[in-house]
Amino acid sequence: MPKTIALFFVALCTLTLPFSAVAGQAITRVSDRQPVSLQQLCAKAEAADLVMIGEVHDQTAHHDLQLEVIRQLKARKLPLAVGVEVMQSDNQKELDAFLAGTMSEADFQPVFARNWSYDWRLYRDIFLFARDNKIPMIALNVPKELVIKVSRQGYATLTAEERRKLPEGTTCDVNNPHTEFLKQSFGEIFKRSARGRVFDYFCEAQTLRNSGMATNISLYRKKAPKTKIVALTGIWHGVKNAIPEQLSRSGAKLSTLVVMPEIAEFSGGKASPEVIDYLVSFPSP
Question: So which residues are the signal peptide here (predicted)?
């Protein structure tokens, strides 16, 4: 993979967009562009099976919003689980040990660092709230070494052994709405930087992650069918044509609410109800 494309892929997966946020967010219901309160949003979240809350990974205010929604749903005494992109499914046992209190925070931090490149402190309050309130957490992501290999060489190069490391039911069918969404959003960048299969591999890697995370959500719901799942992911995994679409394609019948922070691609009325349910903006610092 050319260096420019590799850097772009890393940037997209981590989504370190220049977006600064502090307390005092404004929430818009995208279907009719009406402002709503956080309490109104949470009332809608209470009725959904799955609540997708997107993030720009290095923005503290986005994580504060995620935690506040989790707090409010917990206060309503709902059966609740939190799914996180930041942990890979093959590290579920370590995550469970931390939540059970049999692994200390100090011992868990190196595990977190192996899974995710961003500072533990950005996510710490969410993990501690889940631990202290006995809320299960789901390690949603697929092994990152497989994502990297697919992004560079394509899904077809995965060996049978490597495919067995994926959550059972994960697919890499790029004939899906999110692929078209990626073409519209990022195709020109790839055209300027490289030719050939690079963009196809990028789409395969994104689909692999979306499908794998959707599969892990679906598997958890089968074990705990009355549990509401709040899934915390990067923006391009949480929009309706990503993980929610993959759930639908697999036959999972989950009512879903999608909440996203405002970024350039969604500003100025560009957010569509086909992609987002609620858009959250934050004041400039």
Answer: 1-23
* Domain span including residue 220: 3-281
| Predicted model pTM | 0.87
Copy the structure tokens of residue 20.
């600064």
Alpha-carbon torsion angle 134, 255, 259, 190, nearest 10: 110
Q: Using CA atoms, how far apart are residues 49 and 32, in angstroms rounded to an integer?
A: 22
Q: Are 233 and 76 in contact (CB under 8 A)?
A: no
Mean pLDDT value across residues 103-111: 98
Q: Within a 10 A sphere around the Cβ of 256, how many other Cβ atoms?
A: 21
Q: What is the 3-state secondary structure (H, E, C) of 83-121?
A: EEEEEEHHHHHHHHHHHHCCCCHHHHHHHHHHHCCCCHH
Residue with tokens 């772009």: 8
Contact between residue 138 and residue 216 where contact means Cβ atoms under 8 Å apart: yes
Domains held by the chain: number: 1
Q: Which two tokens stand for residue 6?
A: 């590799």
- In DSSP notation, 220-263 reads HHHHSTT-EEEEEEEHHHHSTTTHHHHHHHTT----EEEEEE--
Give the span between the Cα atoms of 99 and 115, in whole angstroms. 16
For residue 87, the number of C-alpha atoms closer than 13 Å in the C-beta half-sphere is 27
Between the alpha carbon of residue 51 and those of residues 73, 196, 233, 235, 269, the distances in Å are 11, 37, 11, 13, 22
pLDDT (average), residues 137-165:
96
Q: Are strands 26-29 and 278-281 parallel, antiparallel or unpaired?
A: antiparallel
**Domain CATH code at residue 8:** 3.40.50.11550
Q: What is the pLDDT of residue 197?
A: 66
The amino acid sitting at 171 is: T
